[in-house]
Recover the amino acids of this structure.
């Protein structure tokens, strides 16, 4: 293959391809091979062994973690579907005032730091939560927040926007004539919905739901903060690796491999359902939302706003908390900027670290991601197919696992970078690279190849044609991809938690540690900074992509 | 102005011969059309000349110089695409100026040439428009001006009209032809529309499955198709397969015409005749020798100036006959039996096996 490209003259794209393959080999294949090897190695003797897998698969402790992971995955998926589907149907089919606002708030909930939801709900519904007593007064008694209830509550409210956005966009592409035809053939409203509409949107719904499943089992922060005694695979792997007493890299690695396998199966399912998603036919007419009767309309609005406000609640609580007066870790009546003063005094470095690491990573991501996207979209070679597949890996491998893989791999020469800022930047880079690649490839697929050829036939050298014609047309997509990478990079918790040392601590790590220490004021102030940054980035994405919520899924 | 030599060009994709030993010459100043069904390799050949895909074998020469190894951007070849390929982020003027800017022409000269090119394609006054403010036809005119303004040695056009509606298609077709004539630029034009090819071309190259079937003037390919494929691809044609031939070339089909020495030694032949050459009895008499047979009229379609008769001869053979200026009496002929004549001078014969033309009268 490379030989074939080389024969056509080694051009800029050959160089890019080789660079990409090197990056993938070093930052993806090698670490994952490392963790795989570690899982097959005895901790003490260094001999190859299957004992780690025997433990992980045979011991009730690990079996429990696996089952819990599957429960939170399935539960998160179900909860997200239960919230997302009605919201999608109501907002696309009926006149709902403030539809754009709802979508924006949903996106905000989606990209806000995941663990923020966890501790905000603790503040609301924990033992002393300020909502628990009022709710009990009106007769609603809730189970304790720590445990499955908390985890599933957070996951459902956090991930439903995926289901909502994918389903809504699919619903919007159903030609109303199809439904009218069904009606003309004598199908009643329910019959029509279940026999015509639902099968048409099912691929989108299932794609969104399975995505939720993957994200739920990969999430580390939420079960770790609000899980109580519920152990899942992600938290188990982390604890096995980090705990001083019982640290066990072999077992941690075997657990990680198990986690990868579970994710892989679900991602494969998701891909498969996305692959079959092109059921929507030619669009002749766009469906028009219908107006509901007064009572139905009130109910529909209530449902929509309840869902979206519930998911926005954590952010509001965090922002509110950050402005409360504190003395040390204890809240005082009244408002003030104490928490902000405190983080500026005590941990100003985490803010600059987060900003610097994310910006460097995003710069690298944009440069390489754009070029790889070009290869994927424009070079129909075996290599392009291979890259497309390989770049799914960072989606599949949970952050905890990737972090462990980096630690076990990059602690020996020549790449002894554990404990440096470089390792964190490289981690962010490889984990978020696929976002930029996807953004760049998808916009390129909308730019006809003949445009670039025309430039070449007019005398522009291929590189020149790319920079003069294609790149300017790609710019909005590249910027949207960069912002998405930035949002996810600056909010990254799980892998950073494994890779950080004191000097290289980032905001999410500090927030997490503060929450564990009960320093809610500090956590809230830092979270607010993250939220505002994220919100601005979202605003910018809307601005460049012309208000397209689907840029986020 | 340049002459193009394609010598034994071959190109294979996995499991497919896209170009099979293409060997042809396009003369200087000629309007040369590649015509063939979808997938026959027209675009592949065009892109080989432009330098966008590499052929496996053979060579491309322009004015006797090999250009196979010259990168596309140095070939000085103008290209017009089916989807216009207008740069959407540049104004009309900037689109047209693009090739001149890459050639580092002085600003004054660029402005002048752009203005002249715009006038040439009748878009004067649209210089500052953005492409999305133009209709499809206007966009294609911009593409044409953009390709012409660099004074290319050759102009390549890949189905430039197929995204336009019928009326615009005819209008722009005529304009392209006039422009090409007045500038005398060697043009290779791709289409799968045989009527367009006949109207616009100096010469036509008919292709199928990566092979050249015939190269000739529109009149030649229409009236003396070199293969059965050409005969049936261009214009309407009645094809009568597997007509038995007796010893010495005796045709065992119809009456009137029996011995055809050109068919001597064959056992069967494929005959073909265009609907307008079929003579219906009671209309015109055939002058010269002709095959005579009888057919039942089962459908008559009236189209104003002309009418089409569909007849069944000898139980299964379907023949279409084209009648000019039909009169009322003839249009009521469904169900009647008519005599048909196929004049020898208008009859085509093809080898029953490989479809090659057999000349009946030397
Ligand atoms: N990159 C490619 N890889 C594999 N096969 C190809 C490739 N490009 C073209 N082909 C095949 O080569 C053959 C010729 O293609 P080409 O595009 O030249 O046809 P065409 O005559 O221009 O057809 P159309 O009228 O549809 O444009 C087709 O069968 C096509 O499928
Ligand atoms: Mg083509």
């Amino acid at each position: 293959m490379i030989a074939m490209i080389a024969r056509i003259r080694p051009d800029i794209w050959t160089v890019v391809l080789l660079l990409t393959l090197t990056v993938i080999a070093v930052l993806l294949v090698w670490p994952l091979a490392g963790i795989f090897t570690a899982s097959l190695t005895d901790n003490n003797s260094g001999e190859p062994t299957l004992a780690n897998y025997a433990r992980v698969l045979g011991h009730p402790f690990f079996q429990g973690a696996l089952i819990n992971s599957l429960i939170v995955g399935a539960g998160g998926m179900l909860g997200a579907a239960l919230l997302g589907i009605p919201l999608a149907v109501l907002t696309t089919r009926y006149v709902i005032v403030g539809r754009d606002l709802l979508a924006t708030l949903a996106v905000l909930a989606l990209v806000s730091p995941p663990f923020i939801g966890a501790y905000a709900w603790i503040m609301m519904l924990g033992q002393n939560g300020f909502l628990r007593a009022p709710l009990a007064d009106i007769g609603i008694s809730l189970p304790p927040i720590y445990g499955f209830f908390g985890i599933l509550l957070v996951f459902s409210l956090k991930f439903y926007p995926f289901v909502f956005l994918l389903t809504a966009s699919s619903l919007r592409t159903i030609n109303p004539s199809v439904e009218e035809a069904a009606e003309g053939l004598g199908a009643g409203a329910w019959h029509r919905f279940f026999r015509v509409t639902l099968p048409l949107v099912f691929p989108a719904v299932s794609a969104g739901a399975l995505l939720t499943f993957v994200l739920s089992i990969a999430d580390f922060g939420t079960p770790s903060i609000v899980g109580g005694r519920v152990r899942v695979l992600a938290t188990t792997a982390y604890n096995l690796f980090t705990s001083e007493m019982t640290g066990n890299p072999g077992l941690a690695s075997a657990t990680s491999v198990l986690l990868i396998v579970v994710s892989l199966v679900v991602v494969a399912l998701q891909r498969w359902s996305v692959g079959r998603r092109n059921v929507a036919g030619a669009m002749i007419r766009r469906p028009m939302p219908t107006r509901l009767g007064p009572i139905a309309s009130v109910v529909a609005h209530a449902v929509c706003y309840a869902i979206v406000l519930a998911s926005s609640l954590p952010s509001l609580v965090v922002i509110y908390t950050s402005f409360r007066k504190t003395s040390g870790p204890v809240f005082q009546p009244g408002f003030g900027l104490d928490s902000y003063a405190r983080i500026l005094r005590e941990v100003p470095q985490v803010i600059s670290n987060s900003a610097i690491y994310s910006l460097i990573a995003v710069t690298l991501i944009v440069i390489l991601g754009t070029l790889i996207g070009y290869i994927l979209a424009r070079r129909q070679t075996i290599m392009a197919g291979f890259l497309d597949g390989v770049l799914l890996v960072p989606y599949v491998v949970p952050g905890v696992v990737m972090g462990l893989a980096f630690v076990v791999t990059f602690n020996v020469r020549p790449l002894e970078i554990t404990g440096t800022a470089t390792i964190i930047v490289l981690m962010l880079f490889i984990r978020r690279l696929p976002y930029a690649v996807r953004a760049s490839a998808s916009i390129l697929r909308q730019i006809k190849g003949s445009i670039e050829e025309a430039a070449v036939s007019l005398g522009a050298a291929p590189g020149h044609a790319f920079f003069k014609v294609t790149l300017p047309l790609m710019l909005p997509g590249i910027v949207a991809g960069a912002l998405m990478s930035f949002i996810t990079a600056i909010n990254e918790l799980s892998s950073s938690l494994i890779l950080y040392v004191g000097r290289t601590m980032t905001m999410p790590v500090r927030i997490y540690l503060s929450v564990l220490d009960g320093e809610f004021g500090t956590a809230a102030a830092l979270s607010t900074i993250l939220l505002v940054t994220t919100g601005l980035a979202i605003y910018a994405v809307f601005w460049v992509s012309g208000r397209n919520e689907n840029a986020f899924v | 102005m340049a002459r193009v030599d394609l010598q034994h060009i071959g190109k294979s994709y996995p499991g497919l011969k896209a170009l099979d030993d293409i060997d042809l010459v396009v003369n200087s100043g000629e309007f040369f059309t590649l015509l063939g069904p979808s997938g026959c390799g027209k675009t592949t050949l065009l892109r080989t000349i432009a330098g966008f895909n590499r052929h496996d074998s053979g060579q491309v020469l322009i004015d006797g110089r090999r250009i196979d190894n010259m990168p596309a951007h140095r070939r000085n070849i103008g290209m017009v695409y089916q989807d216009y390929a207008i740069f959407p982020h540049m104004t009309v003027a900037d689109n047209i100026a693009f090739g001149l800017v890459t050639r580092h022409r002085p600003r004054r000269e660029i402005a002048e040439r752009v203005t002249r090119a715009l006038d040439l394609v009748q878009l004067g006054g649209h210089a500052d428009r953005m492409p999305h403010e133009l209709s499809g036809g206007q966009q294609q005119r911009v593409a044409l001006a953009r390709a012409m303004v660099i004074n290319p040695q050759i102009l390549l056009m890949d189905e430039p009209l197929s995204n336009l509606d019928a009326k615009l298609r005819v209008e722009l077709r005529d304009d392209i032809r006039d422009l090409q004539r007045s500038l005398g630029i060697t043009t290779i034009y791709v289409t799968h529309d045989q009527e367009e090819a006949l109207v616009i071309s100096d010469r036509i190259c008919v292709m199928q499955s990566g092979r050249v079937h015939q190269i000739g003037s529109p009149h030649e390919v229409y009236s003396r198709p070199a293969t059965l494929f050409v005969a049936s691809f261009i214009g309407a044609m009645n094809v009568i397969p597997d007509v038995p031939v007796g010893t010495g070339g005796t045709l065992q089909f119809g009456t009137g015409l029996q011995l055809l020495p050109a068919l001597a030694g064959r056992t069967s032949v494929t005959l073909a005749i265009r609907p307008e050459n079929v003579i219906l009895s009671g209309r015109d008499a055939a002058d010269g020798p002709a095959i005579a047979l009888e057919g039942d009229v089962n459908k008559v379609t009236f189209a104003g100036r002309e009418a089409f008769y569909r007849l069944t001869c000898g139980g299964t053979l379907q023949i279409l006959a084209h009648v000019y200026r039909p009169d009322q009496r003839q249009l009521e002929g469904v169900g009647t039996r008519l005599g048909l004549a196929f004049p020898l001078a208008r009859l085509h014969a093809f080898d029953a096996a490989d479809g090659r033309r057999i000349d009946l009268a030397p």
Remarks:
- Residues B 42-43, 158 surround magnesium ion (ligand 2) (CB under 6 Å).
- Residues 128 and 312 of chain B are 62 Å apart (CA to CA).
